[in-house]
């Protein structure tokens, strides 16, 4: 069973504890944490009001089920669940097993004027699935039982799944036939195929496999105005692409029930390599040139100097002797203070991988890069889904960690990354609080790159103080993103946290067009209101 107030499953072997070394490092970086008492599940269940829904054979109104569907995995969600300060819950949760049952539920919602919230893996980090205060009853529709592969066409390399299929199920089913989807967001273990489409997700190896919009070939969407089926066509010039109406729609237009995706044969070989560069500027040039010269890599990730040092020492725990030895070795090769760490991957046939690997290595060497020989690249691949598990042990010690991400053109990357990080780092200066912030480029394109900033700070003396601090940090980073012309979200979606920054990216006319689409599918605003569109278009 999933944790009711944190990341992962109750029996997960990926749960983490803070080492003495990491605890000492945190105290040095931001000060000693203050552990706060945590609300119990029973205490939060006691706050659940009576349901406003009439009895329905598909709808579960059990208070615990409603608590478990009340919040996602954003930092505000975490703070509310751990403090017990939760004041909105769905009135009931349905677990349909087919598109027909989803249609029945939507017909019931339409007839009874219910609010409907689609629920995939519950991994949203921007408030996608949170009920708002409303005078209308709220029905959450959990897609977990629609999680199987429905068909596969190996000749066309297409596969259809129920939208509730989580990442491991998708890969397990495809592997039986010698295929992979290759979509690996950090939430891969728990997030679902339908959720990836609804939030325009990006996987860690999108250079090779593509983002979810490249994989999404068609499917079925149940709306309050009927069923929409999107056929699988290789390419079309017949007007606007209807798939784009659903990609990133976040449940505002309907519920995705079936998804057909473009699949790829399992790779013959895969390898991940870490390269150290003397400086951030050289690392950025290396990343840009590798992608613009079309070296066939599956991923490129570049950590700035502070993230490079932070990751090396945080990963070392209480024994940093290995890191010290690595730094001494790098220093002898001209890689000293200010160094940055790039991780790149090659995926595909053995011949393809060997050629791409050597091309990348030669290019990096030409820019003064030094290849790691200790296996850091494979270590990254082995622990690629572990980062979210750190939030709970940090929280238990009085610390919180969150992230912000965007994407900008290459000409803006260096300045934007510096200014976003600096704005976050200094956002709590008025309180005398230290914020530890560092950045990496997580996805690269010919035109530009994503910028992904992680920041860690103390909760404070209360969860309310922690929330107030987060709001200041979030605004500081978001304002800089808008100032540099970046997208408010490269991979996390919009939800409720980002919606009021959307106009800067889409423009008033663009927002009006999106709003018109929502009104077409959902005239009364019953589908996941309060998400995606700015408040004035609520």
TrEMBL record:
Residues of the site described as Important for enzyme activity: 301
Domain FAD-binding PCMH-type: 86-266
Transmembrane residue ranges: none
Cofactors required: FAD
Binding-site residues, substrate: 391
Annotated FAD binding sites: 118-124, 250-256
Active site residues per record: 452 (proton donor/acceptor)
BP GO terms, sorted: lipid biosynthetic process
GO molecular function: alkylglycerone-phosphate synthase activity; FAD binding
SUPFAM superfamilies, sorted: FAD-binding/transporter-associated domain-like (SSF56176), FAD-linked oxidases, C-terminal domain (SSF55103)
Entry keywords, A to Z: FAD, Flavoprotein
Gene3D superfamilies reported for this sequence: 3.30.300.330, 3.30.465.10, 3.30.70.3450, Uridine Diphospho-n-acetylenolpyruvylglucosamine Reductase, domain 2, Vanillyl-alcohol Oxidase, Chain A, domain 4
Pfam families for the chain: FAD-oxidase_C, FAD_binding_4
Family, as annotated: Belongs to the FAD-binding oxidoreductase/transferase type 4 family.
Protein name per Swiss-Prot or TrEMBL: FAD linked oxidase, C-terminal domain protein
Species this chain originates from: SAR86 cluster bacterium SAR86E
């Amino acid at each position: 069973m999933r944790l009711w107030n944190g990341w992962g499953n109750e029996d997960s072997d990926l749960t983490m504890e803070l080492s003495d070394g990491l605890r000492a490092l945190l105290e040095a970086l931001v000060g000693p944490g203050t552990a706060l008492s945590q609300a119990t599940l029973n205490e939060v269940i006691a706050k659940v009001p009576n349901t406003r829904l009439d009895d329905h054979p598909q709808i579960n109104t059990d208070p615990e089920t409603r608590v478990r569907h009340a919040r996602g995995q954003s930092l505000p969600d975490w703070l509310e669940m751990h403090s017990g300060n939760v004041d909105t819950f769905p009135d009931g949760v349905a677990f349909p097993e087919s598109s027909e049952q989803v249609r029945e539920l939507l017909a019931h919602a339409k007839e009874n004027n219910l609010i409907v919230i689609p629920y995939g893996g519950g991994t949203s980090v921007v408030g996608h699935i949170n009920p708002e205060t409303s005078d209308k009853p709220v029905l959450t529709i959990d897609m977990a039982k629609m999680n199987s592969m429905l068909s596969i066409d190996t000749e066309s390399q297409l596969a259809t799944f129920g939208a509730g299929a989580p990442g491991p199920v998708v890969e397990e089913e495809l592997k039986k036939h010698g295929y992979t989807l290759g979509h690996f967001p950090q939430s891969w273990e728990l997030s679902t195929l339908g959720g990836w489409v609804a939030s325009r997700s990006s996987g860690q190896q999108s250079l090779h496999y593509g983002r979810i919009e490249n994989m999404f070939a068609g499917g079925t969407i149940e709306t309050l105005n009927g069923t929409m089926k999107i056929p699988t066509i290789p390419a079309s010039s017949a007007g606007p692409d209807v798939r784009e109406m659903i990609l990133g729609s976040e449940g505002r237009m309907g519920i995705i029930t079936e998804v057909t995706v473009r699949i790829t044969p399992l790779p013959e070989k895969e390898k991940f390599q870490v390269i150290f560069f003397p400086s951030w500027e050289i690392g950025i040039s290396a990343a840009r040139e590798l992608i613009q010269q079309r070296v066939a890599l599956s991923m490129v990730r570049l950590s700035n100097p502070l993230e490079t040092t932070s990751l090396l020492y945080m990963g070392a725990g209480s024994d940093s002797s290995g890191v010290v030895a690595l730094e001494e070795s790098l220093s002898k090769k001209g890689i000293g203070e200010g160094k940055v760490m790039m991780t790149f991957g090659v995926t595909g046939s053995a011949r393809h991988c060997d050629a791409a690997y050597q091309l990348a290595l030669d290019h990096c060497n030409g820019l003064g890069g030094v290849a790691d020989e200790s296996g850091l690249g494979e270590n990254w691949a082995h622990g690629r889904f572990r980062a979210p598990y750190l939030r709970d042990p940090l929280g238990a010690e009085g610390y919180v960690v969150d992230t912000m991400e965007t994407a900008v053109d290459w000409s803006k990357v260096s300045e934007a990354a510096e200014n976003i990080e600096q704005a976050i780092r200094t956002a709590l200066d008025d309180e005398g609080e230290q914020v530890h912030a560092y950045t990496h480029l997580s996805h690269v394109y010919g035109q530009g790159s994503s910028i992904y900033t992680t920041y860690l700070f103390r909760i404070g003396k209360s969860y309310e103080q922690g929330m107030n601090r987060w709001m200041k940090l979030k605004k500081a980073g978001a304002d800089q993103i808008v100032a540099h012309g970046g997208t408010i979200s490269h991979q996390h979606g919009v939800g409720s946290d980002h919606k009021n920054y959307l106009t800067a990216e889409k423009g008033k006319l663009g927002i009006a067009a999106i709003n018109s689409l929502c009104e077409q599918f959902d005239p009364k605003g019953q589908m996941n209101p309060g998400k995606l569109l700015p408040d004035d278009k609520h």
